[in-house]
Amino acid sequence: MKAKKHPALLFMLSLLCLFILAPSLSAQNDKVITFREGDNIRNIAEEHLNDANRWNEILKINGLSSITDLKPGMKIKIPASDIILADKALENSLKKIQEATKAGARLLAPVKISEAIDIRDEAIALKNNSDWKNCIIRAEKALSVAQEALTIAKDKNNVPAEAVLDDKTGDVESKTDSDLLWDEIPLNSTLIEREKVRTLSLSYAEIVFKDESRLRLNENSQAVIQKMRSDVIQNKQESSVSLVQGDMYALLSGNPRKKMDIKVPGVDTDIKSKNFWINKDKGGVKVANYDGTINLSSGGRTVELGKNKGVMVKRNQRPTDPKDLLPGPKLVFPEHNSTAFRTDDKKEVEFKWEAIENAVGYWLEVAYEKSTFNILVINRFNIRSNSYSTREIKEDGVYYWRVAAIDKQGFPGIKSESRLVKVITDNVLPFVYLNIPDRGVQTTKESFVIEGETEHDAILNINDKKVDVDSLGNFTFPVSLSEGENSVNVKLIDIAGNVNQFEKNITYLPLKEVTYTSNQLDSENDDGEGKIISRGAGFNFSGITDPDARISLASTKNVFASNTFSDKKDGSFGLSAPLSEGENEFDIVITAPGGYQSKSKIKVQSDVIPPDLILTSPLPAYTNEALFNISGESSDASLVKINEIELIPADGKFSYDFELADGINSITVNAIDDAGNQRKIKRKVILDQKAPEIKSYKFSRKQVNPGDVIGLEIICQDNSPLKKAIPFSYECGGVVYNSFLHFNEDMNLYTVVINIEPGIKGTIKLLSVTTEDILGNKTQITY
Fold first, then answer.
1. CA–CA gap between residue 94 and residue 116 (Å, rounded)
2. pLDDT per residue over 755-776, tens digit each?
3. Which of 161, 181, 427, 648 is most buried, with most CB under 10 Å away?
4. Secondary structure, 3-state, 202-270
């Protein structure tokens, strides 16, 4: 006798073989290669991992943080084994889920098959995070649970089964004859005869029967499962569903041994179609047929509805003549088998299609599965434009989408072709390598060729100019340089929209002799060595020389030496040095980046007392005169600066006619002696030659009656303080009144209380206001 093979035993043996063979497979597929000059990491990933976008996995397994860490001659490991095992495990689990589904697991083992799908989704998420080992573990678990679902489905295949709520969005409720109230129905719930199902706003429900026939209730719809009978011996099934109200979309199996009948109150139907749409509302019934024929009878007339035809049956009336349905729209974007990228900043996925003439809306479906669109992610009816941007796709993955046009009578037309789109969230900045290090680069030539490598499908701009990138991601870009530091602005945008933007520096230093100018040398000294008068026990030696030059300062009398570098852009520098009593002497050596040097000496003496400073008249806080005189005395100042205006005192006196700008003027009078000691007088002076502006006014009430007390508030704006009281006039009941507004400093506005005289009523209206500030700037504003 031949031994019977147990399915569970065979499955456990297959898993055991997989674990036994996995180490040898891993060892066989592990690769170590040598990274050579000119190699491209994306090409390496394409060759060994079958996907150029897996280049970052090579960096990760080798402990590298950037592509720039790869050097010619380096041995790098290719993580092929884990990736191949993970892909194989995911493929095996998918096949087992499909096998179980084909055997009826969605109906007979809905919890197990859903669990298997969820676990496989977890494995895919682990794969997307490059967690290959845990991806393999979860994929194998999904395969195991799918096998359990398959076993349950086969065991139950010969017993009666009910319909199942296979998919839902939003609020879906059910009610049996014994129930008093509607109750929310969970996904994968079993439905029985006479059970009512309804959907609320922005909701839909998909019911699957044992023969894989599917009925979809769109939003605000209700149906009754009237009959479900199975003849196990004859392998026959008969089901009927009644549409009470709303929309129903049917996709029947077409199996002649398993009959599905859709009933609509008031209309007799004979359905020989596998794909149709029915709508029932207060006005009657609409039917759109996409396959086979449907006979509809009402009011003594029978109409045969052919493929891609629609008919309307008004309440208790005869059916209309069949009409052509609108054609399927041509899909525009995303293209078939393309990738829709999104980021954390841009989470929307956009769908576009060509507009259809005479269409008033569109029906968009996005699903996980192509053949029946049975697991919907998006089910939007009556979209008013030929595009739809949405955040409803929560998870990355592969989706299918299609669109139907809706005509003026509400008939959905022929569905378009279905397209596949892969949705990927990509927040990784695109990589780019330049032959410019982070610290910048120096050159003695007036031009520089930028070379580098980036993602071949990214958009690269350098200094706001588009750079051509070849198919391998290589590029060159010549730049002309100005003397000193030159900024190189790099902006890179990948196909997901991620922007990598940064700046590098190139310093152009032409060869030339080194000179410098000190800010502290006495221009009147002509002995060739220079003389500086400094204050205190130290001084700051500053000046300008070549950019990035080395400056050395050393005392000839004391043990002191200091070094610094001039600014890379403008060549400015500064050094501090201690002073001894009396005269001090220092050697200065300046060395340019090209190696050229200049040498000199300076002498320094001390002075610590700041000069005196007395102004003839104090500076005003506010004025309406644009030109006024600033004068004063300083007995020992060699220079007086009024802002940036430099004056040489004559016999210790100075005078200057200062021109003010409108608004706030910051004025600093600074007396400076030869040692650099300073004494300053600072003041902000506001020039205001304009009358105050009224920004807004408001009566507490515009319609008044005799004896009313009305408040008026006026907000003025001016650069100077406002006058405490200003006149105004107003009209009420045909009488003109004059009064004064008083400035409320706490509220920063003018207010007045108006008492309405007896016999006066109607609308109160502001006629004029005379605004004025403390400088006398004023104007009358009329309304």
1. 9
2. 999 989 999 999 999 999 999 9
3. 161
4. CCEEEEECCCCCEEEECCCCEEEEEEEEEECCCCEEEEEEEEEEEEEEEECCCCCCEEEEEEECCEEEE
CA distances to 5, 151 from 2, in Å: 9, 22
Q: Can you give the pTM of this predicted structure?
A: 0.45
User: Alpha-carbon distance 306 to 298, whole Å?
Assistant: 17
**Which among 517, 767, 523 has a CA at the least distance from the CA of 638?**
523
For residue range 713-723, list pLDDT tens digits in order. 999 999 899 99
Backbone angles phi, psi at 565, to 5 degrees: -120, 145
> Token pair 């054609």 is at which residue?
327
Nearest-5° Cα angle at 223, 217 to 227: 120
Please give the structure tokens belonging to residue 279.
């709508």
Q: Which amino acid is at 313?
A: V
- The Cα–Cα gap between 452 and 503 comes to 15
How far is the C-alpha of 200 from the C-alpha of 222, rounded, in Å? 9
Q: Tokens 């007036």 sit at which residue?
A: 446
Distance CA 339, CA 334 (A): 8
Query: What H or E segment, with its residue span, contains residue 435?
Result: none
Strand 419-425, strand 338-342: pairing: parallel
